[in-house]
Structure formats: structure tokens, C-alpha cells
Amino acid sequence: MTITIYHNPDCGTSRNTLAMIRQSGEEPVVIEYLKTPPSRERLQALIAAMGMKVRDLLRQKGTPYAELGLADPKWTDEQLLNFMLAHPILINRPIIETPKGTKLCRPSEAVLDILPNPDIGPFTKEDGEVVINGEGRRVV
Known about the structure:
With about 140 residues, the protein is α+β, with helices and mostly antiparallel strands. The protein contains three helices and six strands. Helices cover about 25% and strands about 15% of the residues.
């Protein structure tokens, strides 16, 4: 079974998600999408698999989103894809593909919904937030 993560190692959410995948017993295919961006076709397929609109995948924080004026509704999906391909940092992350589905995992614990083995045992995020407590219960 293959799990893929479109990952940014500088992003805490992405690192936490990757850690949960590994704690589930899986070693995912890790694609550092800033170094190896997806093709237009792959990006479109990911968006379709997630059931999102192109605009919903745009990352605003720490990107040229404002500078490029991407909040303006004038931009078509094709134009927004062009921006994401030219500036991969605009692609929100982490995107996870598993046999159970494809999802933008923000917050990181959203990955538990699509992991083949979501019973990962106790898990605490890098910032100290408890996701799954010592009794194996998800903390909300």
C-alpha cells in the first residue's frame, strides 16, 4: 500500500503529519514539492481527488499571494494553476494520498481520517499539543 505526502520540511504541520504517518507503521513516498513540484496534470488530479476548488488550495501565509493580487476573483482556475506552478510555495500543504483518499491535512491530525491504520497510539505535536492521549483517545 502506498502513501504519498507532498511535504515541506520547513512546515511544522507537514512534519507532524509525516510523523503520524510513520507512527501508523507506514513509510510514505515523500515528495518535497518545493524541490520537485507536481506537473499541471498532477496538481489538477490532486485537486479533483480532494474535491476542492483550485482557489482553496492556495496558501496565503509566507507566499507571494498578496503581492500577486491573488485575492482578486478575476483570476481563472487556469491562471491560478499557472501561479502555483511558477511559485510552488503557493500550494498549500501537506497533501496526503492514501488508498482511503486524498486530503489537504490542515490541521495535521486530519491525516488520521485517511490512514489505513489510524490507531497510532499516543501522539503529541512538536508544539506540545496532544492529538492522541495515553488512553488512545483523540483529543479535540
